[in-house]
Specification:
- The protein is 47% helix and 8% strand.
- The protein is an alpha/beta fold and 447 residues long.
- Strand 5, helix 14 and strand 6 form a beta-alpha-beta unit.
- Helix 9 crosses helix 11, helix 11 runs parallel beside helix 13 and helix 15 crosses helix 17.
């Protein structure tokens, strides 16, 4: 029988009960500013790509057992579209250099000003063609990305699943219940870790790994913690520094927050997604989450359709509910002296980006980046980029966030709809991935 979780209360005295802020080194690497990205020469990326196979080999190979390090494995020279340089960025047979239409940051532009106030992060789903020049600095491993690596079979990343199939713990005689379903779950967890390790050999920052694939899993604290622990151990077998190189993405359900609190205490850093209310953010930050992600455009659109909810959530007076919620979350974290960082996503246009100046991290797509780069910053005028978070103290009082209050906040905000949609997409991708393994991969492997 599941016991009721204790409420997540604000610190009575921030100096006594709040966690001592620790620098999020790995994510700072992830979010190094765009000019740092663009100042790197293309030759450096080419050199890193050519070395990635040797780096991964030293990391221990695909099977993950330390005794297996001498065994050959696939070379991670190219990656799936959302995780590294795409196939469309082909290198010349004579020059060996990647081509890209990426532009340099214009001195005096709004982009140039914005990068001095926030760490700017490329949204790789929109700026895929720029990754070769940008580094890349980070990677994401999700069911859809792993499925692409497996089904296309045109990349060395397919080795991630090949190694997982022969991983000792995933052999059918070693998995719990000795069932095919249990074996597939184990193989996919190991394949996620293998692919993430390959990505870690190519990027300087962190690799984000999806942990939760369905609504059922999102509401099961023990399942989330157990899976993250198993995957963390698999990373350690490959000599990956889990605390510095890996972020586990966990949706902001009540059980997800409880899982985050447990994992963060164990040194496993968590990236909390699907944050659409102040109560969700308060619960996640007080639980010690390394990072919380807001969605500016989605929040704005939802409250335009639900004005009564905006009044209830203290967002009715704001000209933009998405921007205001992000600022309230940042103010709450600052007020309670918590270590959590905020990343703003769903940034739809130049106006959004400028209004977010001063947020810890801003996720920008290629279109917004180019627009900001083409506009001259009016440094001394009323339209210039200014730090909107520097003196940001506007936050409604948030007391204890117990489960009933948390669930009510989810129901009366965009969180319920958006989280259901996102988890449904994840579940569909996970099911498709399992079916692919069952029908296309396992039949050709001796069991």
């Amino acid at each position: 029988m599941r016991h009721r979780r204790a409420p997540i209360a604000p610190p009575e005295s921030a100096t006594l009960t709040a966690r001592t802020p620790q620098p999020l080194h790995a994510f700072h690497h992830f979010c190094v500013s765009l000019d740092d990205h663009l100042s790197r020469e293309q030759e450096r990326f080419n050199l890193k790509a050519s070395r990635s196979s040797r780096v991964f080999r030293r990391a221990g190979g695909l099977r993950g057992r330390r005794a297996d390090r001498s065994e050959p494995h696939a070379s991670p020279e190219s990656a799936s579209p959302e995780a590294s340089a795409p196939a469309s960025q082909t290198s010349s047979a004579t020059s060996g250099k990647y081509t890209s239409n990426v532009v340099s940051i214009q001195r005096g532009s709004e982009l140039d000003a914005l990068k001095t106030m926030s760490s700017l992060v490329y949204d790789t789903k929109h700026a895929v063609n720029e990754l070769a020049v940008l580094g890349p600095q980070a990677a994401t491993v999700s069911p859809s990305i792993l499925l692409h690596a497996m089904s296309e079979n045109c990349s060395a990343d397919v080795g991630s699943i090949e190694g997982a199939l022969f991983y000792d713990r995933c052999l059918i005689e070693n998995v719990e219940g000795h069932t095919e379903a249990a074996r597939i779950d184990c193989v996919l967890d190991k394949a996620f870790v293998n692919l993430a390790t390959m990505m870690a050999s190519r990027v300087e920052g962190v690799v984000s790994v999806e942990v939760v694939e369905s609504r059922l899993a999102a509401d099961d604290r023990d399942a989330i913690v157990g899976k993250a622990r198993r995957m963390a151990e698999m990373f350690r077998e490959l000599d990956v520094d889990v605390a510095e190189r890996v972020l586990f993405k966990i949706p902001c359900t009540w059980e997800g927050v409880q899982a985050v609190e447990t994992l963060e205490r164990e040194g496993v850093k968590c990236h909390v997604t699907q944050v659409y209310s102040l109560e969700q953010a308060a619960a996640a930050a007080r639980a010690g989450a390394s990072l919380v992600q807001t969605y500016v455009g989605r929040v704005r659109t939802w409250y335009q359709k639900h004005p009564v909810a905006a009044v209830h959530n203290h967002l009715d007076a704001a000209s933009d509910a998405g921007i205001e919620l992000t600022k309230q979350i940042a103010a709450l974290i600052k007020k309670e002296k918590l270590a959590t960082k905020v990343i703003a996503a769903s940034v739809k246009n130049r106006k959004d980006a400028i209004a977010l100046a001063g947020c810890d991290y801003i996720l920008l797509n290629d279109r917004v980046v180019r627009t900001l780069n083409s506009e001259l910053n009016a440094a001394n005028g009323s339209g210039g980029v200014k730090n909107a978070f520097e003196r940001n103290e506007n936050v409604p009082e948030v007391g204890e966030v117990y489960q009933e209050r948390f669930e009510a906040a989810v129901a009366n905000s965009p969180a319920a709809e958006e989280m259901a949609f996102a988890l449904a997409l994840n579940a569909a991708a996970d099911l498709k991935l399992k079916e692919f393994v069952k029908q296309k991969v396992l039949p050709g492997v001796g069991q």
